[in-house]
Each structure stands twice: as structure tokens, then as C-alpha cells.
What we know:
Low-confidence stretches: none
Strand order of the largest sheet: 3-4-14-9-10-13
Order of helices and strands: EEHHEHEHEHEHHEHEHHEHEHEEHEHHEH
Largest sheet: 6 strands, mixed
Radius of gyration: 19 Å
Bound molecules: pyridoxal-5'-phosphate
Mean pLDDT: 95
Number of strands: 14
Strand content: 15-25%
Amino acid sequence: MSIYTQINQKGYYGSFGGAYIPEMLYPNVEELRQKYLEIIYEKEFQDEFYQLLRDYVGRPTPLYFAQNLSQKYNTQIYLKREDLNHTGAHKINNTLGQILLAKKLNKQKIIAETGAGQHGVATATVCALMGMECIVYMGEVDIERQKPNVARMKMLGAKVIPAKSGSKTLKDATNEAMRHWINNPTDTHYIIGSVVGPHPYPDMVARFQSVISEEIKKQLLEKIGRENPDYVLACIGGGSNAAGAFYHFLEDKNVKLIGAEAAGLGISSGKSAATLVLGKIGILHGSKTILMQTKDGQVVEPHSISAGLDYPGIGPIHAHLFESKRGEFYAITDDEAMKAGLLLSRIEGIIPAIETAHALAVLEKMTFKKEDVVVINLSGRGDKDLDTYINYGF
Ligand SMILES: *Cc1c(COP(=O)(O)O)cnc(C)c1O
């Protein structure tokens, strides 16, 4: 068994991962660790999950041959259309999987943390679907910045609780959600939104998102007669859409895995989220990974024009792909991403999320052969980013 798809019992990808949690949280995390694999591979679970992915989420999402983009970069580019999922991004694959798991664990309540509100909305959506009580912790500053998503969550029946400590952003919301979970261990499940957090979260979230690469394989076989592309590109905040797009190609060294993280205003500007360039090994949200920190280990406040990439760490699977050189990673500035987002809108008629635009911007930095098959994971749609695009100008 491979160390990627079958991480060890303690949840390590190479030297990254694990579960660094306060003792108070141990029973909750341990219950999950012992039961998640057995539950999610039961036939009944799989049937329900796949049926909802099909009829509720709208899967399989198309794999679209982008003719105009291909012509521009003189190669064969396919877009995996996660933007066409219900709620507009890949996040629903994971929240749906986790709420079904929570039901099997007899939990009645769901908590989540959210930064930009995208994960909060995806969580509130599945809670509405399943009739579960939903509490979303969100930094007070983010609540002010992300009003439409706050309204969506409330409309879906979720309770949004402001985190008022520290910088009043994502990391403070995460701390409050953890605290809530410690105090309510028996009836509550905590839905984490990316391949981060203590084991088994990174592995569990990667498995739910792996439906993306499972479909890419089938769709490529149908379209070009082979399952494997030469390249898979994805943007990386925590790394869940990338993990899902890479998952079934991890073992196949001929498929090159390319990640795009956010360089914000520039690597050395002091305002970026380029974790792999600037970060050092440390512990963040319960796992050992690479994160941006000061000399004395304080987490550095990240910056990116896209709220979804504005995260000071990276999932342990990607820290390992980086360290082992199995993956190749690019840091993309705000400006490069905005240009790539506008280009896709103009030449393909698809307005991407600004997160996704970071992956598209990598096309400018690489050279491909004419016959190379390049799959880009189009993680989300750009409706939510319209104000940012308008302010940037076009
Ligand atoms: C949240 C989000 C991301 C970043 O999260 P990952 O876990 O790195 O995938 C990327 N794209 C979109 C559209 C998002 O909403």
C-alpha cells in the first residue's frame, strides 16, 4: 500500500500530519479515527453518497476540452468543471460526505469554521438537507467582509457565531469551533473544510474529494483513449481540491502534479500566503506541516486577494508532495491571478473563482508540448468574486 493513499495508522504522509491535539479533544478525534474508514466504505454509505453526488450536487461534473485556451498555450487543456457543482465549488463533495458520516455516528449537531464563508455555506447547505442543527464560527472581521455568504448561511438555517478574539479571522474561528467541540463531544460533529487538521481529517477529506480524479480518469479514457493526463493543475489553500484532483494519480509518476499557492502582493512583500516558499515546519490546527511563522513560532497573518487561499499553512499531504518533489508548486501573485481569471472569461466564457485563477496563471509559467494533455481543476465559479473583479478593472 502506498504512503499517499494509505497513510500510516498515526496519519503521517512522510514526516507530515499526525494529530497534535489537546487531551480534551482526544476522545472525539479518536472516535473518528477508529470508525471513519469502516463507515465510508460500507455499501449503504457509498450508495447514498454517490446518489446524492449525482442528483443533488450534479455530478459527474463535465471534463471540458478548452479549445481556445489550448490554442493560446499550444497544448491540450481540459477543465474539470467543479464550478458547476451545487453551491458553485468543490467544497460540497466534502461536506456531504462528512454529514453522512456524522449521521452514522449518531451526531445531531454540526459545527464548522469558515473564513470567506464558502465552507460555511457548503456546510449549512447539507445541514438543511439532512435536518441537522448547524453552528458556524466566523471571525467578526470576516462577517463584516463577507456579508452575502453570511446571509446565505442564515437563510439556510445556520447560526453564525462571531469569533471576537485575536485578529477576529479564520484562525480565531477555528479556535472557537475546537472549544465548542471539546464541550460537546457526544452529540456534535465538527466538519473541517480542507485537507487540514488532526488525523483523520486530511485523509478523510481527501477521500471524499477524490471523486474528482476518479471522474477525470473515466472521462479522459472516454475522450482520448487513455486515463492519465500528463499534467494536473490545481490551486491550493488548505489543499482539498488539489488533493481530490491528484488523488488517483499519486502513484503514477508520469502524471505531473502542479499546485498553485497565493503569493499575494509578492513573495517578499510581507503580504502573501506563499506557504511553501516562506514557511517552516511547525504545528498548525493539529497537524505537523509547513506554515508561515515568525522566528519565535507565531503564525503570520497571510494575505491573498482570494479569500479561499488566504491560509498560513498547507495540508500535510502537500507538504509531503513538496518535500519529496513528487509535486511541483508555483506561487502566483494577486495580479497574475486576476489576469488569468479575466483571460478565461474572455476566451472561454467561463468566469472562474479567483482561487481557481491562480491555477490558470501557472499556464504562463510553464511550457508544454503540443500533444501534452493538461487537466486544470476549475475549483469554483467567480460569481462571489464579482466585486473584486470590478475593482480590479477590465
Ligand atoms: C475554498 C476554495 C479553495 C481553497 O480550498 P482548498 O481546500 O485548497 O481546495 C479553492 N477554490 C475555491 C473555489 C474555493 O471555494
